[in-house]
Specification:
With 458 residues, this protein is mainly beta. Among the domains are: 50 residues, no CATH class; 145 residues, no CATH class. It contains four helices and 30 strands. Strands 1, 2, 3, 4, 5, 13, 14, 27, 28, 29 and 30 form an eleven-stranded mixed beta sheet that branches. A hairpin with a 2-residue loop joins β3 and β4. α2 packs antiparallel against α3. The radius of gyration is 31 Å and the shape is elongated. The relative contact order is 0.18.
Amino acid sequence: MSVISASLAMAEGDYAWTGTMELADPASFQRIRIDDPVTLELGGETFQMMVDNKTLSRDGVSRPRLVVSLISPTARFAAPRATSMERMWNSPVSARAAAEEAVGESILWDLVDWTIPGGRLAVYDAAPLDVVRTIAEAAGGVVETTPGGELRVRHRFPVSVPQWFSTTPDHILTDATDNLSCRESHRARYRVNRVTVRGWLPSGGHLSAEVDRREDGLNRGRTSFHSGGTAHLLVSQGPETAIQGISASAGALLSNADQSFTVTEDVVFDGTNTATLSQPAQSIQSVIWLGNDLGSLSLAPDGMTLLASRSGIAIARVTFTVLTRSWRLSVPSRVAGLDSFPVQVRITGQSGDLVGDGEIVCQRGDGAHPGEDISDPLLATTEVKLSRGRAEIDAGEDLQEVSLTCVHRPGVMPGQIIEVHDALMGRSWRGKVTAVAHEAVGPRITTSLEVVRVEPSS
């Protein structure tokens, strides 16, 4: 196969290498089929690719241009080639294991690996690559493909910005042998050096109270009471809520033993995979789908949110166990000379973070530039929260964009640190590669880089 010219490129955030090659031989062009594997060698660096599409164009009666578009073979994990999936991980699973299960093969994992609690990771109508991206981005990572065609997950900033100047650079470029052109630009940005990262976003807390209406309950089914009698109350609280106090306008309140019992209610799924119970549950006993079946149900950490395996319009009859606090209210026979009177009961509580899933603050320097709070249900450990926080702070540094063209440089990838010796512009500097493009026309091969560097001091 005779190739007239070829180009390949990948930018941070684009999971695959893409490119083109122009062929000289019509017979080779005709033999090529969509999705055929292609091995392309540029200046000693080998890329495993696949055919994305073909284009034949003519300009009058001149020789037609025969162009084949290429993409990394990991495109089979993305739409439209991949089959959409529905999946819920009901049991705890490591981030890497879930991502590899989605694509069905091993992944180069250069990111923190952590345990995702059961019920947190659920996908509907998602391509396998979408699952990997969701997991990676939660921890401040990106997904990309190596030249050899292997899927890789790495931190968006493999080296934090303050360490760029102390780490060993992956490449050194000089204007004597490498650099052909350099263009500096400035991107105005709001600096961020302090962010708050939360794992699970609570519902705001749940606290409710009612008279015990159960036929077999403490009040034996009664809901109205005579003066001088006793009424039993049930107080429901979510796992993120603590009861601070309980008081009444008249009479005395004494605590009873906690009450555990089952409740059955119909919950509605309105085109989503989530629904809400009327009160916090300890566990789900049974589920009956009244019509459409959305699969298994799991209970979110707030004790009230139900997560189905897939989205849809459905009604589920759910039987679940609840555990409530109980108080008995003993009222006097007369109040202000009256034997018929109302009593008000006030219960106060405080909402806090879920145990092990609270928030942390990531800060660099004086923290005078806070960013938006981050909340992601996949962030269940301190280690992964720190990973996400560092990514946000690194992205919020005062970075300048530089476009650099040099003679062909094999082995350059987004995320790598390069050192540039630029005598004509009067300084040397380091930065992180965010995009790579190789272009070959005949024997001439050039490499273009997009780089971000710390804004030089004036």
